[in-house]
Design goal:
The structure is a homotetramer. Chain A is of the alpha+beta class. Chain A is built from 19 helices and 10 strands. The first copy, chain A, has 2 domains: 4-218, Hypothetical protein af1432 (Orthogonal Bundle), CATH 1.10.3210; 223-313, Growth Hormone, Chain: A (Up-down Bundle). In chain A, 49% of the residues lie in helices and 13% in strands. β9 (381-383) of chain A pairs antiparallel with β9 (381-383) of chain B, so a sheet runs across the interface.
Amino acid sequence: MSNKIINDPVHGFIRVKFDSVLRCINHVYFQRLRNIAQLGLTHMVYPGAVHSRFHHALGAFHLMQVAIEQLRVKGVTISEKEEEAACLAILLHDIGHGPFSHALEKSFFKKISHEQISIALMRAMNKEFNGDLELAIEIFTNKYPRKFFYQLIASQLDVDRLDYLKRDSFYSGVVEGNIAVDRILAMIDVVDNEIVVHEKGIMSVQHFLLSRNLMYWQVYLHKTVMSAEFMLIKFFERIYELIQKGENITSSNPRLNYFFQLAEEERSQLSPEIMAEFVKLDDSDVWTVLKDMQGASDEIIKSLSERILARQFYKVCFSEKLYNERITQFSNLDLSLSPYYHFSDTVTMVAYSAAQPIQIVTKSEGVLPYEEYIVKNAMIYSIENKTSKTFYYSL
Amino acid sequence: MSNKIINDPVHGFIRVKFDSVLRCINHVYFQRLRNIAQLGLTHMVYPGAVHSRFHHALGAFHLMQVAIEQLRVKGVTISEKEEEAACLAILLHDIGHGPFSHALEKSFFKKISHEQISIALMRAMNKEFNGDLELAIEIFTNKYPRKFFYQLIASQLDVDRLDYLKRDSFYSGVVEGNIAVDRILAMIDVVDNEIVVHEKGIMSVQHFLLSRNLMYWQVYLHKTVMSAEFMLIKFFERIYELIQKGENITSSNPRLNYFFQLAEEERSQLSPEIMAEFVKLDDSDVWTVLKDMQGASDEIIKSLSERILARQFYKVCFSEKLYNERITQFSNLDLSLSPYYHFSDTVTMVAYSAAQPIQIVTKSEGVLPYEEYIVKNAMIYSIENKTSKTFYYSL
Amino acid sequence: MSNKIINDPVHGFIRVKFDSVLRCINHVYFQRLRNIAQLGLTHMVYPGAVHSRFHHALGAFHLMQVAIEQLRVKGVTISEKEEEAACLAILLHDIGHGPFSHALEKSFFKKISHEQISIALMRAMNKEFNGDLELAIEIFTNKYPRKFFYQLIASQLDVDRLDYLKRDSFYSGVVEGNIAVDRILAMIDVVDNEIVVHEKGIMSVQHFLLSRNLMYWQVYLHKTVMSAEFMLIKFFERIYELIQKGENITSSNPRLNYFFQLAEEERSQLSPEIMAEFVKLDDSDVWTVLKDMQGASDEIIKSLSERILARQFYKVCFSEKLYNERITQFSNLDLSLSPYYHFSDTVTMVAYSAAQPIQIVTKSEGVLPYEEYIVKNAMIYSIENKTSKTFYYSL
Amino acid sequence: MSNKIINDPVHGFIRVKFDSVLRCINHVYFQRLRNIAQLGLTHMVYPGAVHSRFHHALGAFHLMQVAIEQLRVKGVTISEKEEEAACLAILLHDIGHGPFSHALEKSFFKKISHEQISIALMRAMNKEFNGDLELAIEIFTNKYPRKFFYQLIASQLDVDRLDYLKRDSFYSGVVEGNIAVDRILAMIDVVDNEIVVHEKGIMSVQHFLLSRNLMYWQVYLHKTVMSAEFMLIKFFERIYELIQKGENITSSNPRLNYFFQLAEEERSQLSPEIMAEFVKLDDSDVWTVLKDMQGASDEIIKSLSERILARQFYKVCFSEKLYNERITQFSNLDLSLSPYYHFSDTVTMVAYSAAQPIQIVTKSEGVLPYEEYIVKNAMIYSIENKTSKTFYYSL
């Protein structure tokens, strides 16, 4: 048993008891996450939010240990092997993230999610570790029969969300996002192979959902953060576009140049060769290319890189009318380039989905979905399925 | 200038710059609040919640200073004299509370609220301090023309609520109640003599309302707390009842005996004599009487005091059916006494009242009431006016 | 298994897994601690420090669970029965405290410490619980062969100190006392039946010792706190003195009257009868007597009670010269009473005692006492055995 | 007035009231600090310690505002212009830091400190801003007659240290470093143009010194952090060495290549041209070069870059004997390269320097240096001038 202890300002001490977990932490694929910002360019608005995906993965792993301990206290039988596998699965759940996490998720691959890359990397590591990750992969891909393990990793109340909300709130300083992780985990149990929450924890669940919603609108979807990240996406788009057109665009960075040179169809598949290049990437590659491109001959590329580095982001408004008024100012711009200068985007936030409900276990009525429980008990906040909001961006 | 500094684990250091404020803090009326629990018997459930009303009054006073500083930053002109008066008014706003704060609010006086007593005491102190509290009383009674001062003391978003929510959350350990006081106060301004909140702070306001609701159901109206407090109320009721009937009930405590002997009509008026006795009371008087009464000959008084001290509170359920089943067990009890053994009570919680709305100041549309702003911006939580819940208590 | 969860703002959730522990918590002897301030009159200076000894006992019990878990991780075998007994022993270690904890420790009994009373009460409870506390008492009285259990309860680095430092820092708002409890407990182990600390934790131990020293001088021995508590002690002394002289001093409080009437020799023994009266006492009795005595005919008693309630404490200085100058002002006072009006007292604080050292386990040199380790490693703070300071109190 | 508010999880909200300060924050020189880790490679041990120098500079600026407010409360007259200049000076005090802050401070320039670069950059910005930074530079270079301003920026108790200790403690999760910034700043005053601390704050000063010492040994000089940073330094040394020898070493990174190609004498002066290149550098350049160099033909460069990225740092011990035993294993290594494979280094930590003492203002004896005050008052911790420790590093 490794018994290594890692300091975490968010959860206190993180104890790593399994050698296999320690081995994965020390793997270069995982170490790479140190240089990948958990929240992309959010630190442009919240300067404290510079924490890494490495740290989040450790935190989620820690909460998995806490959750399993709590379930055992309730009498749920969980073997050492299952515990180890669940820990490995959550530790590696985000290993497929590329530079700037979600912000650039669609800038490297087409139609391939970071979860798919995570699975591919877990399979590669499994081979390297002689099958030690077999059960972890089974859980992560929801093939393991005791499906509550999967729910702890990926559901509306999983340890991933519990960690990232608490962590992002901590580092950004947006105290309203500080959820009661300990209380929620003290209230979980397993009924019929599914995670349920005791009704005594109902208000903590409600608070968790509300805090998540608040963190989305106040932090993750903050208009300036969105503007920054869209400009970065546009920057990549422009480079790809010019290269498709045959222009000779190269940066000083060999790792990103490799991706720039890929044909579009190559970016829709996870070949071993591409994967081998992908795991070399981190935020530093993007930053250096942004710095290089300040001297680019293409006006768009030059302007976007300069602006991002100087923190001069596009203006954002929420009214189509104002936006249309504003963009008339730019009538002298090359029309073909206008999608780089002004554009809109609609964001949809699902506060709570009844499709795969959070289950509440009650004293008198057995298990009820969250939304039903709320109605039955005349609790005052109705949570609608989703809210959409259109952001209008312009120079 | 006094420049005294008081340590507060909730807000950090509280600076007392006005001599008049320091004089009021040192007054025996105010010192009395040290022995009055802010949350009555809540510590029976949340053992950390033993903080005093003295501390809350200091905290609210501190937040008044912060609020005034923030308003000045926004360009609102506030004179030293106004600042001092507003500070005095909030410091003394709760000085009329008796033992166990709200829990026993109706056990000493009939139809007289603690606010009325606060005003009476402020007037008495004003005389003693040669009129130094004149303006403070004007503000507190909402007679001062600049009514935003009154709103800082008593409205849906006043410094009273900001302090008690944050403080009660801190001491109870219910982290979900930890509101973003600093952010809210950074967002306030004055428009047309009224407190408004800049729309950038909308989510903090929402979070504040939700946290308040959560604190009510999870802490203030926690079923075990309610049961404890109702038993204490019943204990007082029974003593009064027997004394009305002419029975000779005395405790060892001269201060409470005085109140026990008052005729009911005397308890509906604030005579100077009664006031003079009232300001001698604090929690310790009630505790000692509870201890005395464990040996009472009256079965009800004896049982209630024993049970409260041994923490054996009445059972609470929320279903009339279950309650009716339960109380059939007590059919052998003296029927005339049953209201002491089982009873129900309906609690109504107003999450947000549109009658005196929180005002949001927007860039494009001027000032809007909170509820309108929420609808216009398709924000996802509808807040209904009120929720009611019936608690059924029984042996 | 009881599985009860108690909210604690200091440590988070406290889980009570043993039914026997829950039974002890619910016992009236333990519930009594709710009305005994952990820090006597300290809240007169630090208004937040109103936490109870009830809460501290729960916190220390929680840390015992954490400590035992950590020792098991290191491979120390601890049976369920031992764990339960250690938990019971720490839970009840302070059950013998009377009103205002240490402040009045010598005002009720002569030559009897609160530990002796704790043992007596534990024995009484053991009888009531049919011997369930047998092993707990064995540990508490250091008769159990595995002496590290005793060290966890009473040594220079026990869970009692770990809890009270962290808790007192939290409630007083003196952040410098916030020790790294989690880190220290993560570093303990057992060697040769004794608690040792791994050398990786050496700086946390140092920080703990320094914080403890700081808390003593800044909080526990704060001159105003000391003055307040001495006045309370003098108040009791005077009452006893007059009663010895045959004067008829009675308060309204039957529980304290009982003690006032005891002959001095009766107060040096723990008779069952006296014990039965002692467990009725809590802070509220003292407060009500203070209020009663404001009308006393004896000048000393009247003055002390009035001053304590109005927070007008004796002046404190640290210079004999200034003190002597000051007391010449009181030459008109009745000389025989002067020890009530001005007096001095020397306090000695042992920062670290080499007599029963904290043991450090090193990689290369086995176990070393803390003071030796510090010297060997040229660490920069020498900690002398003790510091003494004389406080001069006067009207 | 700008009135911008920035979220800071450490201090709460940071208000930027001066337009000039906002202009400096928005300057590319200052924005560059976003990508410069405050603590170099410390996050390799404490994964949370990823905060930027940008954030520290904002925090120190905030504390300057607090300090000035506190001094005004004490009656010290400070003009708006002085306040603005002091704010600008502290905001920009670290603007001369290069990649990885202190870790690589000597890898880019010879005999030029980051403070000198800060001054040079401030002068450049001053020109750009038409002299707006004149007074700030005067204060920063200690030419302003009211020297307490300089002491707030650079002394043993300056806002720089107050911010970094609190911030580094917060982000690393080493709670023992959490100093009482608010209390210390509440205790400062100005006597004879110098910053003094009221004696009531003596224990907070002591705690601050002890915490600083603890942070040095536990965090800044943690053996693994030191090993990581030395390897990075050696990596740069080797590149310079080979280039001096005429070997063709280039990375993909044009910004670092520029520095690699400089002659040694060029690196001892701050020419405008070199400065113009320096301000392009940040951590991302170093990371990308490390990645490039994993394929280097030189064994040393290849090995160091691979090891740093895979987190395989040199072993550290503190005993020369063990070290000598260990390095005999490497006898087969090329002798000329051995300084890259094993080496030692002595670190000296000055806990407190009496040369420029912290001044304590007392009631009875005027101003005393800290060390004298401690002795006079028999306070128990002697603080020696310095401790040295030799670290031995090897493969």
